[in-house]
Amino acid sequence: MVMNAMPLNESRVDDPRRLRELIEKAARLAGVYDVTSVMVGMSGPEGDLMFPEMVDYVASALRIDDGIFRLTRERVVFFLADADRQRAEEIMQRLLVGFREHFTPSQEQRIAFGYFEVTPGMKDVTVREVLPEIFSSDPAPVAY
Question: Is residue 9 a part of any domain in this protein?
């Protein structure tokens, strides 16, 4: 039995326009307010039942200025406002530790992270630029 199963009319995939909006928000923060933000790509193994639960856990811990975009059941993009890459890595690590403490998986799971830092002075950041960077073809998976 799968806990927290989604109703049939709900999807684990978001409208593509939302991803564009998150990237534009990061670019606007960098351009207008000189604020660095990070787009974090997180992917899990196909069919991993715990991965969507972990995504929900991370999403529930985000600040109101942050955001989430679900590409597929196994791929998600987090937008972390007012954070550089080092801070984003620390945030994700802390949240993974918290998830593991609350929901102990029966076996070690492997996920991959990718980071795209949107810094002041960057021009025209696009989805085509961000996605290949955060979902590289050869990610280094981390155990959680």
Answer: no
Summarize pLDDT for 60-115 with one digit per residue, the tens: 999 999 999 999 999 999 999 999 999 999 999 999 889 888 887 666 778 899 99
Cα-Cα-Cα-Cα dihedral sign, residues 10, 16, 17, 18: positive
Helix or strand holding residue 54 (H, E): helix 50-61
| β partners of residue 70 | 76
- Are 89 and 97 in contact by the 8 Å Cβ rule? The answer is no
Q: What CATH code is carried by the domain that includes residue 28?
A: 3.30.70.270
Tokens of 87: 């801070």
In a domain, 4, yes or no: no
- The pTM (predicted TM-score) of the whole model is 0.84
